[in-house]
Amino acid sequence: MDEAPKILNGGNSLRPQKRIFLGLLAVTCVLFAAILAGLWYVPYVGLTTLHPRLPLILGTLFVILLFLVFVIVTMLALTVVLGRDLFFSKKLRGVVIKLLLPLMSGIGKLCGVDKDEVRRSFIAINNQLVLAQHLKTTPDKLLLLMPHCLQFHDCKFRITGNIVHCQRCGKCPIKGLAELSDKYGVGIAVATGGTLARRIVVERRPKLIIAVACERDLSSGIQDSYPLPVYGILNHRPQGPCYDTLVNLERVEEALNTFLVKGEPT
Ligand code: SF4
After folding, report:
1. How far does the centroid of ligand 1 lie from the alpha carbon of residue 163, in Å?
2. How confident is the model at residue 10 (pLDDT cuts 50, 70, 90)?
3. Which residues pair with 230 in a beta bridge?
């Protein structure tokens, strides 16, 4: 068994993805505070005519709301910067997935940040928060979910859903992934798109997923699967998108060693 599983994409170094996330988070907070101030100030005059204490009551409520947001954002930023589970990593992941990603995508667009940069940053933060939960599972509860574009474009063997028909000829990364699946005893599935991926997840009911895909598919997959933890690994596209893509098998194996209760291969 591996004694100390490597912490993937974690640690306390501020990778560019983390910096983008934290930058967008800061801009989101400033905008939120400005909107709250505006919401309080603009009807100020109207409120005093209703009751002289109303502006004070509303102002207090806004300050409490702002304080709560400040606490959540500080915990999130500290978890990201320190690379450690402070509190509520699971809940924080929900906040990031449900609330912050849509907000930050919009703000990123306004600030001229590339959409894929924001997605990469989201995936890195999601991974960090999944790692911070220190999840461990047995091989039967872990699923390797792969995109169809990893398969060699001219391969005649059908591997969608189940890869048993792969002949392991070595022309694409499916061979190496099949070997990892055998070595660790974990399930593996290849999906052609989000609909099939969702069906596979419903059928197999994993407790944790290690997914490989492009920025767009990984972000939407992580969102769709919530609260199921998904650890995302980006594919490489030397031939362009969706065509004979590649994946770093070492990273997949590191992820397996990190999340499996038994690091010892079967
Ligand atoms: S490794 Fe498997 S999927 Fe890839 S080209 Fe060979 S037979 Fe096809």
Report:
1. 9
2. very low
3. 209
